[in-house]
């Protein structure tokens, strides 16, 4: 609380000092020629937008006013927001390598051994190796009996939902728990019990890291470096969650290394350990040639990426799907076929 008040006072002071010196270098209503942008606040830019609880709705509102591509400014950083599926597809899929670079970020580096990470790291030779490894390990794990595991998990999920009866429920937690169990099984070969304390710790860490890292108290550190010197309870909480996450992943990797057999690759961790061991045996590694070494940190962070990238994305996609279904009851889900269908029969039309 004290930290927030101090922070606001400090920002007001800086805004006051900067008054008159602030020039809108941005486009749109501010007068420049590139991307449209709402008028920014002095110094803060659009940082306060991030405090809004209804951020997705707000982004949609802004896209109606400024078009499908607009620009926001967080402190000194510009952020381009894409608002249609086609544009997002174009940036992330069709022209993915054009957009593969990532800017240096203080907070991203803090939680990823200095950017040795797939989703937060820059587009470097090491990143390409890490990505190839993550994809091939994932592909290999898909060859196991994943369908049976997912069906069994889906059945358990249905039972959990039925057990709530007619009481209100936050479905996102169950979606996230069950997804996390599947990904744990693929990554570490362990199907944790939902009540297992170790599993609960890692599951909570995933949520905490995502939530804290994207919170305004942390995001602001990327835009205003001087704030990094001040006490920040959110940053402390984030670093504690990251420490728990790392202890869990390290522990799992140690167990895997102790029992590793090259002839029997059991899961994603084994695939990654295998790759690292083979690479170390090669005489001309980049390290030997004077370049950067592809070390265990990259494997560690690739596992974290699978966990966080796989769990929260899937859980929020499912949660949003339920939200859409509630608002569009004419759409029906047929679980047996895994199909979403527009139920036009009720309106007297075949589909
Ligand atoms: C509905 C579910 C999912 C959505 C919406 C989703 C979305 C995305 C998006 C948009 C990216 C690109 C991010 C960027 O370019 O920075 C990405 C990357 C990634 N996702 Fe997912 N994802 C989903 C499920 C999964 C699952 C189940 C896994 C693994 C078990 C996974 C693992 C990854 C990894 C490792 C990356 C980074 C590597 C790369 O760019 O190829 N994702 N995901």
Automatic annotation (TrEMBL):
State the membrane topology. Peripheral membrane protein
Q: Which domain of life is it from?
A: Eukaryota
What keyword terms does UniProt attach to this protein? Heme, Iron, Lipid-binding, Membrane, Metal-binding, Monooxygenase, Oxidoreductase, Signal, Steroid-binding, Steroidogenesis
A Pfam family cross-referenced in the UniProt record is p450
Keyword Secreted among UniProt keywords: no
UniProt GO molecular function: heme binding; iron ion binding; steroid 17-alpha-monooxygenase activity; steroid 21-monooxygenase activity; steroid binding
Q: What class of enzyme is it?
A: oxidoreductase
Q: What is its EC number?
A: 1.14.14.16
Q: Do you know which InterPro entries this protein is assigned to? A: Cyt_P450, Cyt_P450_E_grp-I, Cyt_P450_sf
UniProt GO BP: hormone biosynthetic process; progesterone metabolic process; steroid biosynthetic process
Q: Which cofactor does it need?
A: heme b
Name listed for the protein in its UniProt record: Steroid 21-hydroxylase
What is any one of the record's Gene Ontology cellular component terms?
A: endoplasmic reticulum membrane
Family named by the database record: Belongs to the cytochrome P450 family.
State the compartments where it is located: Endoplasmic reticulum membrane
Q: Does the keyword Lipid metabolism apply?
A: no
Q: Give the range the annotation lists for the signal sequence.
A: 1-20
